[in-house]
Automatic annotation (TrEMBL):
All residue ranges annotated as the Gfo/Idh/MocA-like oxidoreductase N-terminal domain in the record: 1-122
Record-annotated Gfo/Idh/MocA-like oxidoreductase C-terminal domain positions: 135-406
Domain of life: Bacteria
Family to which this protein belongs: Belongs to the Gfo/Idh/MocA family.
The organism's taxonomic lineage, starting at the top: Bacteria, Bacillati, Bacillota, Clostridia, Lachnospirales
Species name: Anaerocolumna jejuensis DSM 15929
InterPro entries recorded: Gfo/Idh/MocA-like_OxRdtase_C, Gfo/Idh/MocA-like_OxRdtase_N, Gfo/Idh/MocA_Oxidoreductases, NAD(P)-bd_dom_sf
A GO molecular-function descriptor: nucleotide binding
Gene3D superfamilies: Dihydrodipicolinate Reductase, domain 2, NAD(P)-binding Rossmann-like Domain
Name this polypeptide is given: Oxidoreductase family, C-terminal alpha/beta domain
Length: 418
């Protein structure tokens, strides 16, 4: 199988790397405007110079030269790139979000159906042992129907500073709102677990902490010239030098020596003071969801956590499910009649699996390749299933901005008819 890579950043290299290393696909072309990244991809995959492109237009002028494309570029670029790929008949593995604009998401879905092409969205959480086990417990009916869910996305204080304050996803106009970029994953998982479309959504949140008024006294624009850096946990040297060679330091530069990283901090965006960046996305947000089957959900998205993890509590008629994906552990409890009788409980260890996102990255890539080989279109993360999560995330941001409760069907109708 021949695959072309569009966007040779961290996510694109992960998916293409798994496909290549598994000997299931050849990466025959790369499109990447940054020369350093383009060269690294070309070297890893053995891509000849004539199949290395610094812009998407030159690549598409070649026509359909592969079986599929992996598109892992910036959020705002997805729509134009995907629509052109579909016009050429490409099947696509598409990094989330599909698009920051839900109308564009719907148009991509319609175009894929019209052209008979597969678009599989990188909702990797559906492919993890952790969430698959929770879904299996819910669907078994052993605890009765789901009544309500509490779900937390714990972004991690250093992750939000790296990606959403200093990094590529710091501004809504350059990428997308935090709840869309980071948590369309979670909207997708919640809709999947509940087994229903959303009915109403309300949301509240703000950019509360990463603001100039919270900067330490005597601090400056960049960490390497800052007198207050020694007492600041966000000092870029503390953040990146100890993890050279791995994420998030690997995002800064291909040169992962101390000298290379220091140079990147001197010249690039990741050396900036987190209190003096041009970021505008939320650093905390809550979303309340009522689904059409009457299940209610409270979702909390926060950058003020020590670990990067997701924690969940599913409350059912006859018991509850608690889980922490950082521990790969799920606790299933059946209710007792009173406070002194024993209750039935079991612990499920979902186990460690290869790759990022609890093994979801690998399993997603395998699913994409398997769908291609079998000429099938029943992926658990197809465009048809994935659009719902993006409409939900958009509704959440609309609610946060306007202070109104959003009726999801009304929103969908407006998007379809606009």
């Amino acid at each position: 199988m021949k695959i072309a890579l569009v966007g040779a950043g961290q996510r694109g290299m992960i998916y293409s790397g798994y496909a290549y290393d598994s000997n299931k696909a050849d990466i025959v072309a790369v499109v990447e405007p940054k020369e350093e990244r383009r060269a690294a991809a070309a070297e890893k995959f053995g891509i000849p110079s004539e199949m290395q492109f610094n812009n998407i237009e030159d690549f598409y002028q070649k026509g359909r030269i592969a079986d599929a494309v992996i598109i892992a570029t910036m959020d705002q670029d997805h729509y134009q790139q995907v629509m052109a790929a579909l016009e050429l008949g490409y099947d696509i593995l598409l990094e989330k979000p599909i698009s920051p604009d839900p109308k564009e998401c719907l148009m991509i879905q319609d175009k894929a159906n019209q052209k008979g092409c597969k678009v599989i969205v990188c909702h990797v959480l559906r492919y993890t042992n952790f969430f698959a086990a929770i879904k299996e417990i819910i669907d078994s009916g052993e605890l009765g129907k789901v009544i309500t869910i509490q779900h937390n996305e714990n972004v991690g204080n250093y992750h939000i500073a790296h990606s959403f304050v200093r990094g590529n996803w710091r501004r809504s106009d350059l990428s997308s709102p935090l709840v869309m970029q980071k948590s369309c994953h979670d909207m997708d998982i919640l809709a999947w677990l509940v087994g229903s479309e959303a009915k109403k959504i309300a949301s509240f949140g703000s950019l509360k902490y990463f603001r100039e008024e919270n900067a330490p006294k005597g601090s400056s624009e960049r960490c390497l010239t800052c007198k207050a850096a020694g007492d600041c946990r966000f000092d870029a040297r503390k953040v990146y030098l100890p993890v050279a060679g791995s994420w998030p330091a690997a995002v800064l530069t291909q040169d992962q020596t101390e000298e290379g990283i220091i140079k990147a901090l001197e010249e690039g965006p990741y050396g900036r003071c987190v209190y003096r960046c041009d970021n505008d996305v939320c650093d905390n947000q809550v979303v309340l969801i009522e689904f059409k089957n009457d299940v209610t959900v409270s979702f909390n998205l926060s950058g003020f956590t020590n670990k990067i993890s997701r924690t969940i509590k599913v409350m059912c008629e006859n018991g509850e499910i608690r889980g922490d994906d950082s521990l790969n552990q799920i606790e299933v409890t059946k209710f007792a009649s009173n406070a002194i009788d024993g209750f039935e409980q079991r612990i499920i260890h979902t186990g460690l699996t290869q790759g990022g996102h609890g093994g979801g990255d690998v399993a997603l890539t395998d699913d994409f390749i398997n769908q291609m080989e079998a000429h099938s279109n029943n992926s658990r993360s197809s465009i048809t299933q994935s659009v719902e999560s993006h409409v939900m995330a958009y509704a959440a941001e609309q609610s946060r901005m306007t202070g109104k409760i959003i009726d999801v069907d009304t929103l969908k109708s407006r998007l379809r008819n606009s």
